[in-house]
Every structure is written in C-alpha cells, then in structure tokens.
Amino acid sequence: MTDKDDKAVRVANISKSFGDTVVLDDISFEVGKGETVVLLGASGSGKTTILRIIAGLEIPDSGSVFLHGRNITDLPARLRGSGVIFQNYALFPKMNVEENIGYGLRIRGQKKEEIKKIVTGLIQMVHLDDHSKKYASQLSGGQQQRVAIARALAFEPKVLLFDEPFGALDAQIRTMLRREIRGLLKDIDVPSIFITHDQEEALELGDRIAVLNKGRIEQIDTPYNVYNKPETEHVATFLGAANLMLGVIRGGNYTMADVSLKLGAEYDLIEGQSVKLVFRPEDVILRRPENSDQPFYDLADGMIEEISFVGAFERVMIRLDLPIASPVIAIRPKTETLTDPLKEGQRVHCGITRFRILPNFPLATERAGRIF
After folding, report:
1. What are the two backbone dihedrals, phi and then psi, of residue 146, each rounded to the nearest 5 degrees?
2. Per-residue b/e over 26-42, b at no fewer than 16 CB within 10 Å?
C-alpha cells in the first residue's frame, strides 16, 4: 500500500497501550525531506515508544507509519530502511573504527573495494580520519557516537532515529557534538528524528519540536514558536522557565487587580473568561518606563526577595504588589547587572516586553489552539 503524500515520514493516528497503561494516544506528525524533528518530553511521555514503533521494534495497537509514501507499519525492522542510533552505541569492542563501520556491509556480502570506499568516505564525513584504527575503548564518548552514526549511514537509511544519543556524555562534549551532528545532518540531507528530555538540546537540534505529555503531542512547531508562542501551560513551563498569572478577559483586555493588558486580534476569547498570562523571565524589565529605552507593558511595583548569580545571568525573584502566590522570576544579562546593580529588599517597577495568553483550562493537556 502506498500513501500519496511526499513527506519523508508520516505517523498517522498511532496509539499504544501496555496493559491498562495508555502510552500513546492518537499520535500524528510528519517529517519533511531533510528535516530534523525532535520529540521532547519527560520520562514516561511516550517518546521512546514512538521511536521504537517507527523503527519496527514495537507494533502499534492502531494507526500507521509511512516512509517516503510507503506504508511500513507491518514491515519487520530490517526491511524498513531506518538507521537507529541508541544512547548505548553498541560498538564491537574487538573491532576498530573501520571494522565497526563496515561490519554490516561485510555480512551482507558487499565487495571489499566497495566497502573500503564507503567506509573511507564515512570516516571523513564524521571527522575520524586520525582514529580509524582505534578500538572503542580508545575513543571518547563523542568519538564513539560518531562511529555509531557512520555505521548507521553505511546502509544509506531513509530516516535516522536518535534515541537520546548524547545522554551519556558530559555537558561540554554534548554541546560540541550536537552542533557537529546538526551540520552533518544538513550535509547528508537525511530526515531524522531525535528524542530527548533536554530542552536546550531540542532547541538547538530541531527544525521543529514536538512536545509530548502523557502520550499526547501538545504542540509541534518551530523552536521559536514553541518557545515564544506556547499553546498549553505544559509547553510553556516544560520548555524553559515561565511566569504564570491568573486573570480574566474584560473588554478585550487581560485584567488582574490593577493590571490591564490590551490583547491583539490573534486572541478570540470570551468576555469574563478565566485565562493565564504567560511570560518568560528574560522578558521582564525591572525599570520604570521613563528609565528604559525599550517599550514594555506595565505590571506592578514589587520588592526583590532574592538575587542569584547564574554565570552569564542574574536571576531575580520579585514579590509583586498583586494578589498572586508566587514571586515573578526575572533574568538580567551581565551588562545590565554591571550598569544597574540591584540588591535584595529593593523596591522595583516590573514590566514585560512580550507575553502569551492561555485559556485557564482545568486540564493541562487541553490545547489552547482549540480556542485561539
């Protein structure tokens, strides 16, 4: 059976349960040719099960998987044309880099000259020219990761599937390697799907990010839109830090106590509807309008409760003069902390440069897009 669309990967209405536990609930998404999609979610959100279903290592209870227009739902894993890179790289310890990359080609009976040409090209592609004769125990974690990717590419896969590939690496190596992998994927133009629980990793790797929560996709969009235009409270709070303030729609404005923010035409909300104001810590300005070159929306005055040094930034907790339970979190860059130092107990004026309004649904999984 062939599907008519031209997407590299299409997951259509996939559901999966283990016993009485629903792991995936009607999951659908697409991956374009040459695109990288990151499945982002906490442990138990279902992201690994999706990857295993695409790879053919799990069978869905319902739904279909299409690869380049071909329905592969019932095909065994070896016939799907997918390359899987796991967190445990599973390199053969008694084989060097060349032998590890070429192993699958050898057992498939390809000629030695062809194998050598393919392996040499892949070693150059993943920048392991000086390590081709080394064994796994002589390689760093990042180098082993590159060998695993090269081995997967040897079969010219139609899609690459990465199962938290950087989880076993330290922070510095992880940052360096994901930049290299991002560039490599663009060079080879192979569609890929990553799964991770690391928000920074998702933002840096993905052309689009799908945020999962309890077996459902809450939002799938570009990293910019998922971060700056979250559709649910879970997306807003899982992908980075976010401040939330309850309020009510009055006359087309968000209102709460003395705060009134004019909303644009993008919002289609009902008079009197309960909503939440969502804004990022970096969008908070702790100055009065006359002392700021940047226009912003007024919130309220408040008192600084805590200041924390976090490297390139300063995190400030402000207790606003509003009937809200939690303090507002602001982040100030180093340049601002040097020119305008603050101290705990100081009174400040709080404003925001941008915000998002979400309906105050009783269920966190309810999609804001159903209202907007």
Report:
1. -65, -35
2. ebebbbeeebbbbbbbe
CB atoms within 10 A of CB 132: 16
Q: Is 93 helix (H, G, I), strand (E, B) or coil?
A: coil
Per-residue pLDDT of 124-150, as tens digits, reads: 888 889 999 999 889 887 788 888 888
Give yes or no for residue 212 having a pLDDT over 80. Answer: yes
β-pair partners for 250: 253
| Residue-range domain boundaries for the chain | 9-233, 242-370
Residues in the chain: 372
CATH level 3 topology of 9-233: Rossmann fold (3.40.50)
The gap from C-alpha 146 to its chain's centroid, in whole angstroms, comes to 21
Distance from CA of residue 260 to its chain's centroid?
A: 33
Could you tell me which CATH number the domain at 242-370 has? 2.40.50.100
- Rounded CA-CA distance 124/198 in Å is 29
Distance, CA of 342 to CA of 348 (rounded, Å): 9
What is the C-alpha separation between 163 and 105, in angstroms, rounded?
Answer: 23
Higher per-residue pLDDT: 153 or 194: 194
| Residue 240 pLDDT > 90 | no
Contact partners, residue 17, CB within 8 Å, separation at least 6 = 23, 61
Q: Is 147 in contact with 174 (CB distance < 8 Å)?
A: no
**Amino acid identity, position 64:** S
